[in-house]
Amino acid sequence: MYVLRRSTVRDMKRTLSITVTVVSALLAVGVCCFWVRSYLFTDQFSWSACRDGAAFSRRTNCTILSAAGRTNLSVWWEYSSNRCQLRKFFFHKSSRGGRLLSHNLTRLGFYHIRASYPRTSPSLPPHTIITQGAPHWFFLVPTLPYPLSRVPGWLRQRRRVKRGLCIGCGYDLRGSSDRCPECGRETPRRNSALTAGTRKDGPGVDNRS
Questions:
Q1: What's the CA gap between 178 and 201, in Å, rounded?
Q2: What's the rounded mean pLDDT across residues 62-67?
Q3: Exposed site from 23, 37, 83, 133, fewest CB < 10 Å?
Q4: Sign of the CA dihedral 152, 185, 161, 159?
């Protein structure tokens, strides 16, 4: 049975943490860019797909609208007795000026609308539309806290590297080898240089002169 070493597990956790931090930070930056852009431009992303059935065809439409600091997601289904002419398509449209969305918004900018339209034919189901709305800052709630929580640890590690300490436990590495004798973590290059200078000149000797 293969057993993972403690250092391997620690490296895997570190890699996963860095990956999550980078992805969350990129998503947060993207949300902030769209937030600022929404006051200058109106962006519309639309996607549509059609599927033929035994008695009728159903087209699923999805539209995301970003304007005036808010995001609007609309999904609706259309039914027709004709066969699908265009299976799938996607397009993006941008216009200058962040216009307000034409829905009755609450004070925080959240809303939910579900509506059904009359049947176009007795043999077809009614058209249905679902609309969800949320402000842009709402999407920063799941993406921004984790990268911000990593900043103090990153600053602490930089201070420890400059002082010649282990970045994991803070043990003094000036008289140690390339591994921390306390936690077994590998020594960064700067710590290794400080250690080499200490072993060469001896403790308490200032080798800057």
A1: 18
A2: 88
A3: 83
A4: positive
Q: Is 165 exposed, middle or buried (0-12, 13-18, 19+ CB in 10 A)?
A: buried
Contact between 37 and 45 (Cβ < 8 Å): no
Give percent of the chain above pLDDT 90: 5
Task: Indicate whether this model's pTM tops 0.70.
Answer: no
Q: Report the mean per-residue pLDDT for the chain.
A: 76
DSSP per position, 141-160: TTTSHHHHHHHHHHHHHHHH
**Residue 101 near residue 72 (C-beta atoms within 8 A):** yes
What is the side-by-side strand order in the sheet with 111-116? 88-96, 41-52, 57-67, 70-80, 128-135, 111-116
18 vs 55, higher pLDDT: 18
- How many other CB atoms are found less than 10 A from the CB of residue 11? 13
The C-alpha atoms of residue 84 and residue 51 are separated, in whole angstroms, by 7
- Inter-residue contact 110 to 59 (CB < 8 Å): no
Q: What angle do CA 153, 159, 161 make, to 5 degrees?
A: 100
Over residues 102-120, the pLDDT tens digits come to 555 556 778 788 887 776 6
**Between 134 and 3, the higher pLDDT residue:** 134
Query: What are φ and ψ of residue 79, in 5° steps?
Result: -120, 140
